[in-house]
Amino acid sequence: xxxxxxxxxxxxxxxxxxxxxxxxxxxxxxxxxxxxxxxxxxxxxxxxxxxxxxxxxxxxxxxxxxxxxxxxxxxxxxxxxxxxxxxxxxxxxxxxxxxxxxxxxxxxxxxxxxxxxxxxxxxxxxxxxxxxxxxxxxxxxxxxxxxxxxxxxxxxxxxxxxxxxxxxxxxxxxxxxxxxxxxxxxxxxxxxxxxxxxxxxxxxxxxxxxxxxxxxxxxxxxxxxxxxxxxxxxxxxxxxxxxxxxxxxxxxxxxxxxxxxxxxxxxxxxxxxxxxxxxxxxxxxxxxxxxxxxxxxxxxxxxxxxxxxxxxxxxxxxxxxxxxxxxxxxxxxxxxxxxxxxxxxxxxxxxxxxx
Length: 355
Description:
With 355 residues, the protein is α/β, with parallel strands linked by helices. The chain has helices spanning 2-19, 23-37, 41-45, 58-71, 76-79, 94-107, 109-115, 128-141, 192-200, 222-230, 237-250, 262-267, 290-306, and strands spanning 146-151, 165-168, 171-173, 181-182, 206-212, 256-258, 275-282, 311-323, 326-335, 341-345. The strands form 2 sheets. The chain has a 7-stranded mixed beta sheet with strand order 6-5-1-7-8-9-10, sandwiched between helices. Strand 8 and strand 9 (326-335) form a beta hairpin.
């Protein structure tokens, strides 16, 4: 039964990959699920993780480890069908791709099982599209220098989000020479509140960039950069391009990421006069156990209650919610002690958003 549970979780992830424009990974995970049921090498890779909670995202860990093999030249047959490694996925030759994937897992089981110990570290740059919109909204209400604090930062790439370039129909914000370009950021025209906020704040004064993560990555190290690249889905070139730009920017703009849980991180935060303290996060809550998140919420409530016009606080987050029986990924902003305001929806990778 435990083996069947793994196969079902893998199939769930396959459907998500299909929904979010990764035909390569949708196909491979369907075959992985079958291989698990048959006791193949993919089943061996999952050994010991049969009862792992869903938020551990074991299927994404497997994909990340195998992607790293392709990126480092350890699986040349697989690289031939991964666009991230210079190959092409041909649906007409999908069996060859699957055989290369399965062979890579069988030949490099130790490598893959090492990667299975690592939580997914996508650090998705596209989600900055929603986060920066929320930050502009908060700055419109409380126009003070910003202390930017991120929960679940991974490598802290989105702590540099104000240095990215955002472009949509009739709208552009951020440095024109930024190495990170997010195009077609909104479905249709951007909302009026964002256009107004961007006009009022053509730039933002960010005086602190700090985050937390249980297992932070160093984007300037070869190992950290490889992990970030490996967790981007191998057939999504636009995401990979945004990541490459963000890695270049990380070398230019310092940010600090502490190796600590979200609740303990927030417990040490106090509001500072003359600044707006912004806590933000994107699609990380699902990886946090319920008891830990209850502590996070208490700390957020403490900071909200302490907010004043001279020492402001905002909570900006892009997370999934169940709405009418469906899962929707929503940008929500809480300004000081005010009620939460849902501002936009978007696909989980952040583009395009719609109000």
